[in-house]
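Final report, section 2: Outcomes. Of the targets proposed, DNA repair protein RadA is the one most frequently requested by collaborating groups, and we therefore present its record in full.
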Amino acid sequence: MSKQKTSYSCQACGATSPKWQGQCPGCGEWNTLVETVADTGATAGRFQSLAADGQIRQLADVETAELPRTATGLDELDRVLGGGLVPGGVVLIGGDPGIGKSTLLLQAMTRLAINRKVLYVSGEESPQQIALRARRLQLGDAPVALLAEIGLEKILNGLTQVKPDVAVIDSIQTLYTEALTSAPGSVAQVRECAAQLTRYAKRTGTTILLVGHVTKEGALAGPRVLEHIVDAVLYFEGDTHSSFRLIRAIKNRFGAVNELGVFAMTDKGLREVSNPSALFLSQHREPVPGSCVLVTQEGSRPMLVEVQALVDDAHSPQPRRLAVGMEQNRLALLLAVLHRHAGIAAFDQDVFINAVGGVRIVEPAADLAVLLAIVSSLKNRALPDKLIVFGEVGLAGEVRPVQRGQERLREAAKLGFTQAIVPKANRPRQAIDGMTITAVERLADAVGAAL
Ligand code: TYD
Ligand code: MG
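The predicted structure is given below as tokens.
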């Protein structure tokens, strides 16, 4: 293959430069120049539109068919994908090393292989290693085609030969294309390889699952460049100390985001957890100070999560604020609201917050529960038994309603909770059996009602 010319283009403004520079000559940003293929002549077809002919058509005239979905056989994965894999769809699965991405995909592929043609391309493990893992998971005889390769051109050849319905690329960071001189894993290589594979997927209707590693900062390596190339981005997350693994959609062109799939890592691979609502509660025999149960909504499923707070005298002028499973800045903000609008000061206290079970809570509906856990720890008094709490707390000290309040309450009632403190607007019109509901408008009212 003839060597193609490369140039450097700015990730921020798009300016190009024939050689690498620390600062972009166009916009003055630092470290934004990235190697790209410059020679369009030699690589005809590198850029193509998705429509074959480039005609202008009316939206209403475009024929569509309901996208046929291929279920992977793992319901929790299908839920996050919006019902299954779509032909021509490209899905990026990100996660920390060792979290179980390869295991998940191997399990999904061996199930799919029953009635689909699948190809598993690995740049990280040898066929022996993959086979060994498959045997251990008792999936050894599934008709999965394996290819251990990191050259993009050879992989595309392999794909053309095998013509699989579904292909896995494990991982995108190990691939390199001969068109670029930079090393595998660099932004340029990752982006170019993903773009080429996406083009192949769209052209042939093959579903491609790309595995991507996450950097220390928590972003998919290849600074977000992949996220807009692909159709769906899933994150595989979990605490390495707990066996639970959560898979979450960050972007999905074929379904809803914020769906959550739950798995448990066992010695026989990943096992689906189809009813996770009570998973993130710790078992206290009697109520303890600093613990509050909240109902969070993950996609279509409500889930009960215990939030724990520890408030203790600070021994330095800079008290510590630490939030595990929640956003740190939000904690600082909530403590300010607590002082201003409920008159409870914590400026001389260290405050630690933890969401039990390694779950990560992203929605502001957790605010009220976090604050009640903090007040409970500060006063060293337990909250009432069998109490659940949800509600967003605003800067003016108001308790704002959250989405799907009714569903959350019903799920909590199902799990045996008998009391609830909720935003006023979330008060159900019909009583919920066995549940005493206190509706509050202000943070101070909630603190008064709970303690
Ligand atoms: P892996 O799928 O290789 O992670 P990734 O591809 O995301 O880097 O998962 C490896 C981890 O999973 C490893 O630490 C061991 C654990 N594991 C089990 O606990 N049970 C099993 O059956 C398998 C296959 C892996
Ligand atoms: Mg792996």
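Residues 39-44 have pLDDT under 50 and may be disordered.
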